[in-house]
UniProtKB/TrEMBL annotation:
Membrane-crossing segments per the record: 39-56, 68-88, 123-146, 167-189, 195-214, 279-304
Protein name (database record): AEC family transporter
Cellular localization per UniProt: Cell membrane
Gene3D superfamilies linked to this entry: 1.20.1530.20
Protein family (similarity comment): Belongs to the auxin efflux carrier (TC 2.A.69) family.
The entry's keywords: Cell membrane, Membrane, Transmembrane, Transmembrane helix, Transport
Organism from which the protein derives: Pseudomonas coleopterorum
Length: 308
């Protein structure tokens, strides 16, 4: 398991390093990065989520229980974070980054590890996890940005507008509708969406590396610590409790625990940049959690799976 984890995490770390080098070497013009972030947020990430949900193979006897475990654990931990907001930080924008670091997950790492551990069945379990968590975390993050983003608290009408127009939520909804109705994607469209979605992962990680401000590393320590504590300890424990509550066991429970203990996603940075969060801090959390996951993830998974 440890080898599968490290194999999945290594390319992510290398892409972040490459992004940092490209920015500091001025190989690309500074205005490239803002346009790359916009492309990722409005085109590439929506393609990734839409394609993933529309084409996921969700058949399986554990589907309902696994979805319930993942949604309930995500919502519970989100409520815990919001309740502890005053104890975590006095900076609203920083809180949005800590929040995303605590509840979002890296799809690429999850699918790679699940496939390595369980083969074809692992890919199916990963599809269920994505179908449950992706829409849930995007709704929760939009709500948190609406309250704590740099623009200040939004009135209800603007919150609803943010939800209605958010490209990540719209793509999740559209992909879910395709999945539920069984319509499938038109010939020629599916490979285009797949290619665009795959492009979101390396581009997003390059943007994360470019946004790293190493002079601020000391200021990251506490926020990284909070978000990583939630991600690698609180979230797995809450998920373990949800597994017992809903009677989920075996490989499905291990997959649920795996996805809830993954380092946060590169899409967190894109969302922070677009919705008024602390984007440099978010980049730091992504980079640090990716490195920490090489040690923390095997320990967490081996420990908690003893109880499923």
């Amino acid at each position: 398991m440890t080898l599968s984890l490290l194999t999945a995490l290594l390319p992510i770390a290398l892409l972040i390093v490459l992004g940092a080098w490209l920015k500091r070497s001025q190989f690309l013009a500074d205005n490239f990065w803002a346009q790359a972030e916009r492309l990722a947020y409005y085109v590439l990430l929506p393609s990734l989520f839409f394609h993933g949900l529309a084409t996921a193979k969700l058949d399986g006897m554990h589907f309902q229980s696994m979805v319930s475990v993942l949604i309930v654990s995500t919502v519970v931990v989100s409520l815990m974070l919001v309740s502890a907001r005053a104890l975590i930080t006095t900076n609203d924008a920083a809180f949005t980054s800590i929040f995303q670091g605590g509840i979002r997950f890296n799809n690429y790492v999850g699918v790679s590890i699940a496939a390595g551990l369980f083969g074809v069945q692992g890919i199916a379990l990963a599809a269920v996890a994505n179908a449950a968590i992706v829409p849930t975390v995007n709704i929760l993050c939009v709500l948190v940005f609406a309250k704590y983003g740099a623009g200040g608290r939004m009135p209800l009408s603007k919150v609803l507008k943010q939800l209605a127009l958010n490209p990540l939520l719209l793509s999740c909804l559209a992909g879910g509708l395709i999945q539920v109705t069984g319509l499938g994607l038109p010939i020629g469209v599916e490979p285009v969406l797949k290619a665009l979605g795959q492009a979101s992962l390396p581009l997003g990680l390059l943007c994360v590396g470019a946004a790293l401000e190493f002079g601020s590393m000391r200021q990251w320590l506490r926020p990284v610590g909070y978000s990583s504590l939630v991600k690698f300890l609180v979230m797995p424990l809450v998920t373990l409790g949800a597994c017992h509550l809903f009677g989920l066991g075996g490989k499905a429970a291990i997959a649920a625990l795996l996805f809830q203990a993954l380092p946060t996603a590169s899409s967190s940075y894109i969302m922070a940049r677009q919705l008024g969060g602390d984007a440099p801090l978010m980049a730091g959390i992504i980079a640090c959690q990716t490195l920490l996951a090489g040690v923390a993830l095997p320990i967490v998974i081996l420990a908690v799976t003893q109880w499923v």
